[in-house]
Design a protein that fits this description.
The protein is mostly helical and about 150 residues long. The protein has 6 helices and 2 strands. A two-stranded antiparallel sheet has the order 1-2. Strand 1 (about 10) and strand 2 form a beta hairpin. Helix 1 (about 20-45) crosses helix 6 (about 135-145) and helix 2 (about 45-55) packs across helix 6 (about 135-145). The N and C termini lie far apart (about 60 Å).
Length: about 150
Amino acid sequence: MRSSSLTPTVRVWGGRIMSKSRAVKFALAFGFVSVTFAGSALAEGDIVAGEKLFLRKCFGCHVVPAGAVAKGPSLRGVVGRPVASVEGFAFSDGLKAFGATGAVWDEATLDKFLADIIGFVRGMRMTMMPISRDTDRADLIAYLKSNK
């Protein structure tokens, strides 16, 4: 089947022929759906994958049980907790100053922190490499949120 020579056409996936305007609408709709699903998956995170990441990256210095202190403070209930607020832990001057601003470890702050651990708060003793993948950070935050 041939399209009219007056209507601009585009050959798309599967060899189908459709008008350019319909192809653009299709592409925009598909792009919107893809972005929507990717965004919601990223926001949710995978708790199981986050736990594995915690054990690989964080467990050497941090623990989850409440009240326990290792090299770093316990991360139980960290999501929603004011920065540098765990009693009995000697926080660095940088984290104390950041906490004095009223900062809270919410999801957005944790995401920025994990993406640039050393640069986010100057004067910290923590030397872990940043977590560059958005999905890894979302997974880790989901795991931390699950440990209230």
